[in-house]
Amino acid sequence: MKRKRETCMMAKWIMGLMIASLASLAHAQDTRQHFAVAPTQPAELFPLSAVRLLSESQLSAAVNANREYLLALEPDRLLAPFLREAGLEPKAESYGNWESSGLDGHTGGHYLSALSLMVAAGADTSDGELNRRLDYMLDELERCQNADGGGYIGGVPGSRELWTKVAAGDTGAVWNKWVPWYNVHKSFAGLRDAYLVANKEKGRKLLVRLGDWCVRVTADLSDDQMQSMLNNEYGGMNEVMADIYSITGDKKYLKTAARFNHRAVFDPLIAHQDRLTGLHANTQIPKIIGMERIAALIGDPREHDGARFFWDTVSKNRCVAFGGNSVREHFHPSDNFIELLKDREGPETCNTYNMLRLTEQLFTADPKAVYADFYERAFFNHIISAINLDKPGYVYFTPIRPQHYRVYSQPENCFWCCVGTGMENPGRYGQFIYAKANDGVYVNLFIASELQVNDRFAIRQQTAFPYESVTRLEMKLKQPQELTLYLRHPEWVKTRQLTVKVNGQPVAVESTPSSYAAVRRLWKQGDVVEVELPMHTRVERLPDGSDWVALLHGPIVLASPTGTKDLPGSFADGARMGHVANGPMVPLDEVPVFFATDQELPRHVVRDPSGKPLHFRVKDVVSPDSPGGISLKPFLSLHEQRYQMYFELTSPEKMSALKEQRAEEDRTRATREAATIDQITIGEQQPEVEHDFKGEDTETGMHEGRKWRHGSIIQYTLNTRGEKAAELEVTYWGGDSGRAFDIFAGGTKIASQELTGDQPGKFISIRYPIPAMAFADAKDHTLTVKFIATKWLAGGLYDVRLMKPTR
Ligand SMILES: [Zn+2]
């Protein structure tokens, strides 16, 4: 690209002959060699191969655990679904769990990515086993692609029939499979990573042919057909097709990529409207990554702004202290976190994996410290905490339910989405520590590592952060070089508290929280930069402003370990829902609270007597009172135990009001029992049998400690005990939505009920008067009640009872 020359250009050029020019900064390892089309952006990430983690740390232990996990998987078993769908004989049996129940092959795609990332990060075994497996996978997938004849590589059961239908316009066929585009997206992403991250030319070849297959399958679909199909989760198909355009420069891939832009989700974001409540969270994040990728490639400021708005609203309004979002995989109302607080299915690791990828992209477009602040928080508190080091396994849900626990995957049994992204994470640890600026280097994260820009320039960063609040950067240069080091001043370091020394001498820097302190000079071999980052303990409420708070020291979320007993299923078996921590939940009125305000609380957090870094105790304000207070440790260090990360701020007055409220509830309950004619304990075998339960398509489960049942038809028979009039009372969960049904008593329709999710976080009971004519049908003191779905489902029913009329 031509640039305007400035008059002083010649002088600068002569200077440039004397000191190595910055243009050579990333020459040797420039990833742009892979691209025919690449956006010009103010910042650029270094290739993974340019960064190495140093020393024995939790990070290097996690990389080792990840390697062990990857080696425990058998490539031939992961490949089996691909061979089967290509009409070839599988060499081994497919794995079970999600690999044999419709999402067959998704793990194989993640495995390609994970191997590529680990190899590029220098984390292979000493004999190169991961690299060998990567080559083997590519060879086998090439066989599959050749056998298929149409370029396809995927394990979706019944692939040929499905994609033939889709190509012919039957886009509804995707609903009869388990998110097939999402699944195939993993093949695309794996091949892309094999090429872009691990430099495998074969990855490029297979990827481009797979891209041709995608172009063909979607070619004859109308925009309406495409948009309607995009309601089915499709991963980041727009991103990978845009990547193929970037690699080849052929616009047909860009055109297809844009067809995977989901307008129903994107258009409100462009209008700065957060309409995310109720949406499946991790369905959205990857498509926003694609939205930003295309926007960067074609320079579309509107779409870029929409992606940025999404990031803003999710990171600020929808994330808890550790950087995760969503409950039971869905975005809840941003002004009400109560469901998330109470649920065993807290934030999902995939969501944060994808939020970090989006953060990296937005940072390169607009290198602001706010992106790195979020990245650091989510990285240290969620990503690193989601892998078990002692017995390698990955976490799906991280509940914030006080005193609940987490479940880890096991290699032979578990093939969840979060296993797929979980095995990719450790290879990516070095991705965002540094970034290239036009005139220097950003230091985003404080992690012991070495950045080898080329054979003339490296930076070695040594630190035990977050266990110490200082980092040291040593310049390793063949010859002096002038450039700017952009040292992040984190949001959690107060104004004027960040200090920088070069070779022991203080350097004046101007920076405020959440910015970069710029140090520009002519650097020489061996120059050492020391950055002090004083940490403080602070209190952070849930974004809804409710009285539940987390404590952080610097960027590190602290949590109280609350016991290692009673953790059923904490190493998951192959059960479909084995990733959920289904053990008993501790009642919320039994967990400790703090009698303090946000301002008072930090004063009651003291160093733990053990003196261990980042270990604290909360004293004097804990109720119920416990001798010595309660212990707080970095959440990232707590595994295989129950924990409390959120605490309620309250006061003795509020507590006694709460007690009075509970007494009142007891009185109400007694009155209610006196008015009850008959009642069914839903979902329990004996009471349901006694009430002659019948149903169609029904399921039952637990929520908030209570059992539910839903279905297309549910029927019970109640005992009227000779009463002449009654009302039917039914209890629902106020957060259930999208369901409508008719209610019949004794053959008479008594109500039409719709559940819209308008009362989240609590149970609601609704009374329906029963007309006299319905009672006339009640023979032998029995009355049949029936719930028939008119939209999706009837229920969930939590309680059904016949009540004396309220008069
Ligand atoms: Zn997941």
Automatic annotation (TrEMBL):
Residues 51-430 form the Non-reducing end beta-L-arabinofuranosidase-like GH127 catalytic domain. Residues 1-28 form the signal peptide. The keyword Glycoprotein does not apply. Residues 563-647 form the DUF4986 domain. Residues 673-803 form the Glycoside hydrolase GH146 substrate-binding domain. GO terms for biological process: carbohydrate metabolic process. This is Glycosyl hydrolase. It comes from Aporhodopirellula rubra.
